[in-house]
Amino acid sequence: MSEADNDYQVAVVGGGPAGLTSALYTTRLGHDTVLIDRGGGRAAMMQDTHNVIGITEETSGNELLQTAKQQIESYGADTVRGLVSDIHGEEGEFRLDVGDDTYTADRVVLATGFSDERPDPPLPRTGRGLHYCLHCDAYMFIDESVYVMGTGESAAHVAMIMLNFTEDVDLLLRGSAPEWSDTTDEQLRAHPVDVIDEEITGMNNDEDGWLESFEFADGTVREYRGGFPMFGSDYHAELADVLGLKRVDEDEGPVEVDDHGRTSVEGVFAVGDLTPGHNQIPVAMGQGAKAGIAVHYDLREYPKSLAELDGESVDPAATPAVSEELREAAAERHAEAPATDDD
Questions:
Q1: Gap between the Cα atoms of 71 and 327, Å rounded
Q2: What residues does each domain of the chain span?
Q3: Section 85-108 average pLDDT
Q4: CB 177 within 8 A of CB 256
Q5: Which CATH architecture has domain 4-115+233-318?
Q6: Where do the segments described as Disordered lie (predicted)?
Q7: Is 136 helix (H, G, I), strand (E, B) or coil?
Q8: What count of other Cβ atoms lies within 10 Å of the Cβ of residue 217?
Q9: Where are any strands of DSSP class E within 151-251?
């Protein structure tokens, strides 16, 4: 592959819902786009998709992502499976190293997300009693027994929040001392949440792999439908740090962005779980769409300003501004479109 083949207007790093939506928008808005994805991610772990209107719940995360990838490719975007090991340059000419190849782009969208910190085993399988998205999965615990694991402020508050859905909530400290504030401790003790100090020593699952119960060091066994570990997030911000992007909590935490995903570095956008806010697929899609539109405003060729025109007129032969590759992809889609009554 020649260097010219690797020259794009937009490079999106990360193939989750936010990155895929950014790539969808920039491609459909006429900008040569490459999506670089190392695979995996939080969305890929989902066994069922919740809270995405129009997507039925039996759709797995992998199915959702694969369909979206095929969709952006059909519009003319390129997809690359690989890890971006380095990124350098500035607005108008960013260079991204992926294995032995280098990709250049005028704009970069980072959608690298984060990983949930996992507690030590024994643990149920993700989606079979171990859940990371409160707003996605709280519904399934209506009138069911649920646990929350953790010792910090977030664990205490999530345990109280779950009382909106069920009366049977345990907060599992797993042998560690609580780290929440005295105010939170007073608040927690005023709510009907059982705080369990003992470490987990065993786990029982049903024949389908769903969690049935935990065994504890004091010999007790407590049944649960499932629950939420609250041990923090590990942001995949290595590339953000290489570029010197401002983060919310200095060297930790999400990347600081404006309402359209612009970061502290010109030409670099960030979307999805890498940024502050609710970690939800519809939210990530919205962020990806807004960033894609903002990139389009930066890159679109027309209208020319009066200063750019300098008394001249736009040459009709210079239109449209869409590349030949994207025009060919559009022509194929138009040819495959079903006929309408007006055809």
A1: 16
A2: 4-115+233-318, 134-229
A3: 96
A4: no
A5: 3-Layer(bba) Sandwich (3.50)
A6: 308-343
A7: helix
A8: 13
A9: 169-172, 194-196, 200-205, 211-216, 221-223, 226-229, 233-235, 247-249
Which pair of structure tokens corresponds to residue 47?
A: 């066994």
**pLDDT tens by residue, 159-178:** 999 999 999 999 999 999 99
CA 69 to chain centre: 15
For 82, phi then psi, to 5°, come to 175, 170
What is the C-alpha separation between 162 and 87, in angstroms, rounded? 42
Question: What pTM does this model have?
Answer: 0.91
- Tokens at 116, concatenated: 């949930």
pLDDT at 3 (0 to 100): 53
Backbone angles phi, psi at 117, to 5 degrees: -70, 125
What is the CA angle 253-258-264, rounded to 5? 70
- Residue 94 backbone phi and psi in degrees, to 5: -90, 145
The second-level CATH assignment, the architecture, of 134-229 is 3-Layer(bba) Sandwich (3.50)
pLDDT (tens digit per residue) in 258-311: 999 999 999 999 999 999 999 889 999 999 999 999 999 999 999 999 999 999
